[in-house]
From TrEMBL:
The gene is selA. One of its GO terms (biological process) is selenocysteine incorporation. It is found in: Cytoplasm. GO terms for cellular component: cytoplasm. This is L-seryl-tRNA(Sec) selenium transferase.
Length: 476
C-alpha cells in the first residue's frame, strides 16, 4: 500500500502535462483553479487507495494521470452544481407541493427581475422623500380584490396563523371546532401552532358535528377569538354539520372582546366554481360575511409566490403590523414584487396570465391536441417506445380541492425492455428533469401544465432516452 501511494506523481509534475492543459481548457478553469481541483482529486484518490476502494488504474501506470483529471472533473461538477433548479412538471398535479407549488407567470418574472436587479422603493416613500414601510405594497390590491379594510404579507400562511394567534390571543382562549383541528402536509398542525403561540385552544363540538350553541357555551371573559379553519386537504361526508361563517361572525360581534378569524388555507380570488371546479370559498365572500380577519397562502390557488396574506379589519391588522413578530416573519422584495404583479392580473381580469389559474381551467380538448402532437412527433422520430393516448384525471394539488378531478388526456410511455420505474428515473434525471406519473408499470405524461417550450424539451428528452436505451449506454 505504502509502495502504491509513493508512486503517485507529485502535483507539480501533473500540472506540466498536456492532460492538465486539456483539463483546464475543457472546463474553462484558470491555472490555479485547475491546480486546486487536481490537489483535491489526488487527496481523495489517496484515500480510496488506502481504503482499498480505488478502481482506477494504479499510480505507476500510464492511465493514472488521466484518471486524476477525470476525477477532478467530477469533483468540479459536484462542487459547482446548483441544488435548486427547474424541472418540467408532467405529473398533472398543478400545485405540486414537492415541485414548488405555483409556477410564476412571465410578466411577473420580468417584474421580479426588474425590482431585484435594481434599487427600489421597498421602504422609501417616493412622495414624501423619506422612510416608508414595506407593509404598504400590495395592500391596496388585496383590499380592492377582497373588500378588506387592511392587509399585510408574511412569509407563508403558517406564519400568518402564528402571528395572528401570538399577537391577538396569547394567554387567552381561542375556540375551534373539533372537526377543524387539521394537519396540513409537512407537519403543520393547528393544535401545535396554537400551543407555540401561547394561545389556549378550546375545542368545541365533535369530529363530525359542531353547532352554534357549542361555540356560544364556551365564550368567557378570556375568549379572544373564534377561529374557523378551512378543511383544505380532506372532505367530511355523511352525518356532518359545521357552523357557517356568517353565524360565527355574528356571534363574535355580540362580544366586544371576541374576534372572528378564518384560516382559509388557500381561498380563491377567482371563481373556479363557474367552471364547475370545486367549491373553494371566495375570499371576498368571507370578508363580506363579516370575518374580522382571514389568512391564506400566496402559492396555492392564488398562483403567486410563497407568502401568507392577512386581510381584514384595520384595527386588527394594525396591531399585527406593530407586533415584534412582524419583523421576524416579513417577506423579501422579490416576494412582494411577485405578489403585486400576480394580484394586478386578477384586478385587470387577465387571470389567464397566472399559470396556476390557466392550468386548472385549461380545456381538456386543448390538452388532447397537444398530446396527439407529442405522440405524432415521437413516432416521426422513430422511437422504440410503445405510446398510447388515453383519457385521465389531473389534480389541483397543494392540499386544495382534494376531491376535484380535472378531465385530461395522458400519453403513456412503455418500453418492452425497460421497466417503467427505470424510464421514470431516467426522465427525471435528464436536463431539465421531466417529472411524470407512474401507475401500473407504465409512465404517464400529462401535458396540462406543460408549456410549448417544455413540450419540445420533453420530446428531446424522450428521443435522447430512446438513444441511450438503443445503444445500451450506461446512464449517469
Ligand atoms: C396550506 C394551509 C396552511 C399553511 O399554508 P402555507 O402557506 O403552506 O404555510 C395553513 N392552514 C390551512 C388550512 C392550509 O390549507
Amino acid at each position: 500500500m505504502k509502495e502504491l501511494l509513493r508512486k503517485i506523481p507529485p502535483i507539480h509534475e501533473a500540472l506540466e502535462t498536456g492532460g492538465f492543459n486539456r483539463f483546464i481548457e475543457i472546463n474553462d478553469l484558470s491555472f490555479n483553479q485547475g491546480k486546486e481541483l487536481v490537489k483535491e482529486s489526488v487527496t481523495s484518490i489517496r484515500k480510496y487507495i488506502l481504503e482499498g476502494t480505488w478502481e482506477g488504474p494504479p499510480p505507476d501506470t500510464q492511465g493514472f494521470l488521466d484518471a486524476v483529471f477525470m476525477h477532478a472533473e467530477k469533483i468540479k461538477k459536484q462542487k459547482y452544481s446548483i441544488s435548486l433548479h427547474r424541472v418540467i412538471n408532467a405529473s398533472g398535479t398543478v400545485l405540486h407541493t414537492n415541485l414548488g407549488r405555483a409556477r410564476i407567470g412571465a410578466e411577473t418574472i420580468e417584474h421580479i427581475s426588474s425590482v431585484a436587479g435594481s434599487y427600489n422603493n421597498l421602504e422609501y416613500d417616493i412622495d414624501e422623500g423619506k422612510r416608508g414601510t414595506r407593509h404598504t405594497h400590495a395592500e391596496k390590491f388585496i383590499c380592492e380584490l377582497t373588500g378588506a379594510e387592511a392587509a399585510m404579507i408574511v412569509n407563508n400562511n403558517a406564519a400568518a396563523v402564528f402571528l395572528i394567534l401570538s399577537a391577538l390571543a396569547k394567554n387567552k382562549e381561542v375556540i375551534v371546532s373539533r372537526g377543524e383541528l387539521v394537519e396540513i402536509g409537512g407537519s403543520f398542525r393547528i393544535s401545535s401552532i396554537m400551543e407555540e403561540s401561547g394561545a389556549k385552544l378550546v375545542e368545541v363540538g365533535t369530529t363530525n358535528k359542531t353547532h352554534l350553541k357549542d361555540y356560544q357555551g364556551h365564550i368567557v371573559e378570556d375568549t379572544a377569538m373564534i377561529m374557523k379553519v378551512h378543511q383544505s386537504n380532506f372532505v367530511m361526508k355523511g352525518f356532518t354539520s359545521a357552523v357557517e361563517s356568517e353565524e360565527l361572525a355574528g356571534l363574535s360581534k355580540e362580544y366586544d372582546h371576541v374576534l372572528y378569524y378564518e384560516d382559509l388555507g388557500s381561498g380563491a380570488l377567482f371563481d373556479f366554481s363557474q367552471y364547475g371546479i370545486g367549491e373553494e370559498p371566495l375570499i371576498s365572500d368571507v370578508i363580506e360575511k363579516g370575518a374580522d380577519l382571514v389568512s391564506f397562502s400566496g402559492d396555492k390557488l392564488l398562483g403567486g409566490p410563497q407568502a401568507g396574506i392577512i386581510a381584514g379589519k384595520k384595527e386588527a391588522v394594525d396591531l399585527l403590523k406593530k407586533h415584534q413578530l412582524a419583523r421576524v416573519l416579513r417577506v423579501d422584495k422579490m416576494t412582494i414584487a411577485a405578489l403585486e404583479m400576480t394580484l394586478l392580473h386578477y384586478l385587470k381580469k387577465e387571470e389567464d396570465k397566472i399559470p396556476a389559474v390557466f392550468s386548472i381551467t385549461r380545456p381538456k380538448e386543448d390538452i388532447h391536441q397537444q398530446s396527439i402532437k407529442l405522440v405524432d412527433q415521437l413516432k416521426h422520430r422513430n422511437v422504440s417506445f410503445i405510446l398510447e393516448l388515453s383519457e385521465g384525471i389531473s389534480k389541483v394539488g397543494g392540499g386544495t380541492m382534494p376531491e376535484v378531478e380535472l378531465d385530461t388526456y395522458l400519453v403513456s410511455v412503455q418500453h418492452n425492455r425497460v421497466p417503467a420505474n427505470e424510464i421514470h428515473k431516467r426522465l427525471r434525471k435528464q436536463d431539465p428533469g421531466v417529472i411524470t406519473r407512474i401507475h401500473q408499470d407504465r409512465i404517464f405524461i400529462d401535458l396540462r401544465t406543460v408549456t410549448p417550450e417544455e413540450h419540445d424539451e420533453i420530446l428531446e428528452a424522450l428521443v435522447e432516452l430512446n438513444g441511450q436505451i438503443e445503444n445500451d449506454l450506461p446512464f449517469s
